[in-house]
Amino acid sequence: MPTSEPNTPDLILSTRIINARQTCGFTQAQLALRMGVKKSTLANWETSHSSPRANKLIELAGILNVPVLWLIAGADAPPEVSAPDLSETLMLEQKLDKADLLINELSALVSDLRGHTRRVQRDIDESY
Fold it and tell me: How far is CA 118 from CA 89, 91, 107, 108, 128, in A?
């Protein structure tokens, strides 16, 4: 069995996190935001001051598009990591914008209907 130094850069979790993050084109702040952690937490992971919990490792691997086993132990080379699909993000933002617009239109319609309903009720009450 070949022996290797456990502290070589390719075997350090922090180095793998940094390399995968940079390959994806994320800053520490962007990745921390996507993971719902503080930037200082991510910085601590990348400087080996602390390590992510299992659930965060799984989430991190998913966001960085690398195998969890590679992230944890350096087993197998990571697959080619692609940059985030910006067209998909843009499409989702457009759908959210459209949903906001529809919500605003629906709110205006509901308000208008309430006004008409009150007028009709007033007319009915006045006629009796």
Answer: 43, 41, 17, 15, 16
